[in-house]
Amino acid sequence: MASSAPFPRRTFAIISHPDAGKTTLTEKLLLFGGAIHAAGEVRARGQARRARSDWMKIEQQRGISVTSSVMTFERDGITFNLLDTPGHEDFSEDTYRTLTAVDSAVMVIDAARGIEAQTRKLFEVCRLRNVPIITFVNKVDREGREVFALLDEIADALALDVCPMMWPVGMGGEFEGIYDLARDKLYLPADDATGAYEGRQETVSGLDDAKLESILTERGLGKLREEAELGQAGYAAFDETAYRAGDLTPVYFGSALKDFGVEQLIDALADFAPSPRPQPAEPREVNPDESSVSGFIFKVQANMNPQHRDRIAFMRLCAGRFRRGMKLAQIGTGKTIAVHSPLLFMARDRELADEAFPGDIIGIPNHGTLRVGDTLTEGEELRFTGLPNFAPEILRRIRLADPTKTKQLRNALNDMAEEGIMQVFHPAIGSNWIVGVVGQLQLEVLISRLQAEYKVDAGFEASPWETARWVSAGEPKLLDGFIADHRAAMAEDRDGAPVFMAKDNWELSYVQQRNPELRFAATKDRR
Ligand code: GDP
Asked: How far apart are alpha carbons 521 and 510 in whole angstroms?
């Protein structure tokens, strides 16, 4: 079939709470996947990128990552597409959308901290779409919680069956290695001071094998035998169907810093993680085997290269074999986009893609035509669904220091609204734009990007509103009447769609109840 890829694809993301070790693990995955050649390159790359753009100082200062990208590596005949998700909760909107473009996820948990707030939120998004999850309990080289406590917490907090695939022999000062329950292998630290995993391993016949006595301390082995046996009896056995349905998570233990468990994690992705899955769409589901190309835009990033003011739309290819130069229809707009310079994102570089396959992410440079949520096809009227949008929770009036910069401000706001990191509204009364964001940090990023990228000095003023809803009605007259009655609280989004702004949730539900014939949408339907 024309659309089948030369290599199987694994398109996945890592979800975690900040500091759990996502960056370190990403780097090690790329290192073991052969995509980079020295640890530190992911960070170095991040730094080079940061140096180019001043606003990213915020992420440096706060030690967070607000940009996300795609990293592709190949190993043992499989192409892995790792979609990076920004870690800070203020940027969850972007993160959530990225999760719609993956087929599976790796959940990284700090062995000492267990399930944290951000992990849980991201997990919930995965659950909405039944995204299968492999768990990686990181930092076993440090003091952590008891293995049982960790497994129980994952099971209880996330209401998932857990299946330990490996078992650490002690943690922190007592760490002696990791036992692979499926393969009956023991991964051991190097003898030197690093204590890193350098390929030292022993295959045994099982936990009872006497050979283990000469490798592990009596204490370590005793504990391993007792715990691992109890663990295997007490938790679910691995069941690929349950994993694929998002009901069971296999749990791996390791140390990204010391290279433990990283290759096993790649193997797990290769062995169990799904190939590109059928994608929900209207009026029909799209199957990756279809020969006709289709995909959706899940992210737009402006000014990736400040010299060019470019804008890259990230498209997840869902079906068909994409070829460079193809013309794709932007559904709902009547426009056709000729994709002459599609980009593939390798770990270190972007390169022109001559072709791409379902599961791949291609970057499409454009001048603002493509937006988050767009469906592109060879002509069929399809719309991919399930891309979450979030109602803004913080609304602020934006105030220009220099009133002659109105046009620059409008362009800048448009660009950033296109990236999907904020909404912009124009009130029916008054002339100051209102921006809506999901988190406070986005406001700071906004001000700082306005200065750095657009040379616009601006600040925020409190607005009387807290939340916004897109209003629509079956009967245009009803809508007109509502708008006339609520002019002081009405605004238009950048497409001219009417938006009602409420002072608080109480007022919102009051107005909703009084107008049962109108629809108040927390997110906007695309065109
Ligand atoms: P992120 O915020 O999730 O991307 O986390 P990072 O990868 O930046 O890691 C946060 C901190 O934890 C850094 O200081 C890492 O060096 C450290 N770290 C990451 N993985 C491990 C690990 O396996 N063991 C230990 N001891 N530290 C780790």
From this structure: 15
Q: Which residues of 476-511 are buried (b: 16+ CB within 10 A; e: fewer)?
A: eeebeebbeebeebbbebeeebbbbbbeeeebbeeb
- Amino acid identity, residue 59? E
Query: Rounded to an integer, what distance in angstroms lies between the CA atom of residue 126 and that of residue 132?
Result: 8
Model confidence at 290: pLDDT above 70:
yes
Q: How far is the CA of 388 from the centre of ligand 1 (A)?
A: 30
Would you tell me the crossing angle of helices 218-234 and 147-158 to the nearest 10 degrees?
Answer: 20
Q: What is the pTM of this model?
A: 0.81
| Dist. CA 373–CA 229, nearest whole Å | 48
Question: Which two structure tokens, joined as six digits, stand for 383?
Answer: 């719309």
Q: Closest Cα to residue 320, out of 346, 355, 370?
A: 355
320-365 confidence digits (pLDDT tens): 999 999 999 999 889 999 998 888 765 555 667 788 999 999 989 8
Mention every residue, 6+ apart, whose C-beta is less than 8 A from residue 140.
Answer: 111, 168, 171, 175, 178, 253, 254, 255, 260, 261
Distance CA 198, CA 434 (A): 55
User: Angle between the 22-32 and 41-52 helix axes, to the nearest 10 degrees?
Assistant: 120
- The ligand 1 atom nearest the CA atom of 26: 7
- Residue 475 carries which DSSP code? S
Nearest CA residue ID for atom 24, ligand 1: 139
Q: Which of 35, 237, 277, 263 is nearest to 136 (CA)?
A: 263
Tell me: the pLDDT tens digits for 196-222?
A: 999 999 999 999 999 999 999 999 999
Mean pLDDT along residues 261-266: 96
Instruction: Give ligand 1 pocket residues (Cβ under 6 A).
Output: 16, 18-24, 87, 138-139, 141-142, 255-258
- Supply the pLDDT for residue 58: 43
**How far does Cα 384 stand from its chain's mean position?**
18
Average pLDDT, the chain: 86
In this prediction, residue 527 has a pLDDT band, given cuts at 50, 70 and 90, of: very low
Q: What is the DSSP letter of 237?
A: P
Q: Are the C-beta atoms of residues 52 and 308 closer than 8 Å to each other?
A: no
Flag whether 385 is marked binding: no
Q: Is 135 annotated as a binding residue?
A: no
Say whether 75 sits in a helix, a strand or coil.
strand
